[in-house]
Amino acid sequence: MSGTTTAAVRQHRRAAGAGANRWIVLVVLCASLLLVALDATVLHVAVPAVTEDLKPGAVELLWIVDVYPLVCASLLILFGTLGDRVGRRRVLLLGYGLFGIASAVAAFAQTAETLILARALLGVGGAMIMPATLSILRQVFPDRRERALAIGIWSAVAAVGAAVGPLLGGFLLEHFWWGAVFLVNIPLMLVSLPVGRALLPESRGDGGGPWDVTGALTAAAGLFGVVLGVKRLGGGGAAASPLTVLPLLIGAALLFFFVRRQRRHPHPLVDLRMFRRPAFSTSVGCIVLAMLALVGLELIAAQYLQLVLGLSPLETGLRLLPLTLAAMAAGLAGARMLRRFGPRRMVCFGFCLTAAAVLTLTAMGGTDNPALLLSGFVLLGFGLETTLFGAYESMLSEAPAGQAGGAAAIGETSYQLGAGIGIALLGSVMNAAYTPGLRSVPGVPQHASDAAGHSLGEAYEVAGRIGGTAGAALRRAARDSFVHGLHLTLLVSAGLLLLGAVMALRLPRIMQCGEEPAEAELDLPAPREAEAAAGKPRVSA
């Protein structure tokens, strides 16, 4: 490497790290992530209050809950690659502003349609914020050792946000009206906007050629169709229904054309050559498999705790809290584990530990066993976070700095798709094991058995209406069938996790911590920005 190139690299690192306190930048980025993670779950406990106040129909209620993650997942690639072109900080700050405005609209919505629109705008804001946080983190921590620690803190904050959302929502509902779950976003946005503008460095990718607007819209529409179809499957929609099949087919066709366009375009949005790197493609696959195997279990576990063991929502949240605390611990310890064991052994270990936790939980039955649940959830949280940490860090480090936004968007999209497919797959396994046990309960009419086969909660309602010996028998059969289905679902999940452990063998054995791969992959400042970095005044957008 020549002296001029070495000086440019050092200058880049000063501008990216030392020029702005990168640890304060990390705090700002974590606050952004916390906000998005909170909003993904905070509404769940407010659904009954929203239903009572706005009187939405069944379809409207479904859209109120699902439109945020649906829109967010669809637009991650669009805004991730846009940030690479026009500036990641600029996109992040616009996301802050849109998130705050949409939160105010949602808080004071008077109709279901207004709330759906506001939640969709929140999804747009979330899609602007999520990939920008990871891509800026990639820029301000050029040293891989420090970046691994930063990603660990970042992932621990994500775990906190997902767990705190329902608890915060429950607290606000006890003291205020349902709109308060959205108003909590506004003070955070009022602080984040000026602080982010003052502290976050601006960065762009290599930016060769114009931004491919057609490709970005094709990717967004394709992902919208696929995610919508997958969510319908996970929500119990008929697999042969046109409302399920058509979005999946149209979405898959659009994604096929998107990939084909990117391969031929002189200035692609996403450099698909990244997938030729085993570490990158394997990391993306590990993220999908980890979420596919586990996200459905979270929903099933919540039903088990409340409907089988009879715990209250607050007690259920407290029982699941050790899972979150273990995930936080794994995130904070992840950097040290990665340096010591390397990506391959770390991700393999995470998958195997998570599979062991899942197999341990197959001992769950119709009676409460707090010690078993505590140990199982702790192992589950630690193993899952270890897996995701190693996969995310390897994926982000393998991507060129100029493609950081696109790489982050691919990682987040993989996470969302894995979660959606997991709910659909494990939900189907659960239903296939649960329903047959209710078809021949003595004294229960066929139509009542069919209704009880939809879910355990509905089975309890049907049993209550029937009453007497037949009702008690239906309730007992439903509980036993649910536990049987849970065990089968856990076994399928364990198999997927072990498959992930085998896939992780393609990851690098050691953590490479040398110089950046090549000058072409560095996010070097433009000539005018280089002068500003050297000490002259710089006007930033």
Automatic annotation (TrEMBL):
Establish whether keyword Transport is in the entry: yes
Sorted keywords for this record are: Antibiotic resistance, Cell membrane, Membrane, Transmembrane, Transmembrane helix, Transport
Q: Which Gene3D superfamilies match?
A: MFS general substrate transporter like domains
- Look up keyword Cell membrane and say if it applies: yes
Transmembrane domains' residue ranges: 23-49, 61-79, 91-110, 116-137, 149-169, 175-199, 211-230, 236-259, 280-305, 317-335, 347-365, 371-392, 485-505
Q: Where in the cell is it found?
A: Cell membrane
Q: Coiled-coil region(s) at which residues?
A: none
The chain positions of domain Major facilitator superfamily (MFS) profile read 25-512
Positions of the region Disordered?
Answer: 519-541
| CDD domains the record matches | MFS_MMR_MDR_like
> How does it sit in the bilayer?
Multi-pass membrane protein
Identify the PANTHER family for this entry: MAJOR FACILITATOR SUPERFAMILY MULTIDRUG TRANSPORTER MFSC, METHYL VIOLOGEN RESISTANCE PROTEIN SMVA
Question: Which named protein is this?
Answer: Antiseptic resistance protein
Per the UniProt entry, what species is this protein from, by scientific name? Streptomyces cyanogenus
